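#lab-general

N.A. 3:47 PM
ok so I finally got the sequence cleaned up, no stray characters, all 177 residues accounted for. can someone with queue access submit it? mine expired

B.Y. 3:52 PM
send it over

N.A. 3:53 PM
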Amino acid sequence: MKYFLSACTFALLLSFSLSSFAQADTKKRESPRDSVTQKVGKLTITINYGAPSVDGRTIGKDLEPMQGKVWRTGANEATTFDVDRDVKIDGKDLAKGKYGLFTIDEGTDFVIIFNKTWNQWGAFKYQESADALRVKVKKGVASPAAERMLFKIDDKGKVTLLWGGIMVDFTVKDRLL
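B.Y. 4:20 PM
back already:
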């Protein structure tokens, strides 16, 4: 009985240590988690994402986004987009809440997707039927190119994605204003 209790105690301690190791600081990943939060009047916008580096690779060939395919808009866990008020994204309504932020590179345009399923790894379980909103925006050129993927939000609600030579932006406005 003494050995059984010792073995159970050891197994319990081992499982706690492994689970805490598994939840280690995501900043130490090759594509660390990053986030940006901005107040726009009474509205708060937060984007949480894995920030990959180009590292000498070619976007669209060695790195996502691949043209015509849904991308998690970052690395590792799906990127999340969170608003605490009902908003308009480039003039289209989106209810307050947390969304998976996905994109599709269509060449000269990008489709920005706000998906109701935000808690997932990558885009492997992405389902179009869970889309809350899609908006199409023009793809621009980032100058200088962004080695590490980055989101910016200005105080007027303009959200900008910079990734390699890609620049994409859309505007978020409080629906009540």
